[in-house]
Amino acid sequence: MSNPLFFKRLFKYSKQVTPYLDGQIKTLASNSVEQNIIQIEYNSSEVIRNLYENLKHSNPEAGAAYWLTRTWGLLCWQPIYTAFISIYACRGLPQLSSIAQHVQEGYVAGYQLQSQSYIKGTDEELILEAGKELNKLFNYFRNEINSWTRIRPGFTAHLFADAIFGCLVKLSQFYPSLSEQYLLTQAQLWLKACDLPEKLLKSLNYNKQSKELVLVRTSCCLVYKCQGQHLCSNCPRAWKSANHSP
User: Where does the secretion signal sit in this chain (predicted)?
Assistant: First the structure.
């Protein structure tokens, strides 16, 4: 299916969520890829490595675990946000695996989709397709990174699940009328679609007073290792510290 209005809405809502999520329809050149573009049909290992090296240069004190975690998060945030906005705000889904992302110095912001094709369906059908697309894309990221450093699937799975749940928390904040049952059912659908362990659902709780989901992540972004930074409020380290204090 093709409809320019779908993408007009998608790009409008994306920039309302954050101006950094700036999308457009634009095909890549058939014989080469632009510098600092990451796209599944091209070898992006050096572009990703340069992103990692920029993070290393900016935060030398933080260490390799932070540089890798931050690199992975930057690669994945736009596809995940785009999936959520497409499904819950636009009721459709473009081909996420074809996304081309713009890499800037130490950051990833802005993206291109290759065509105006998208699919429609129920939430469950769209989530299932989004899971396939995201896994295809993230396997590509992992393979590109593995060409120059090791990145474990278990490590990325926890980061993936936390990013999905983080978007569900935002969804509950945008739409406080959504019920606890609906939100937790959506979380289960996402875990299944993305081949993520169902036990990770335990990291989500529903606050009946605020009518919002509450997330205690199972992964740590390690930003506290950067000079002047602290633990995030939903960090598992912060939660453990609070629950073991005298």
Answer: none
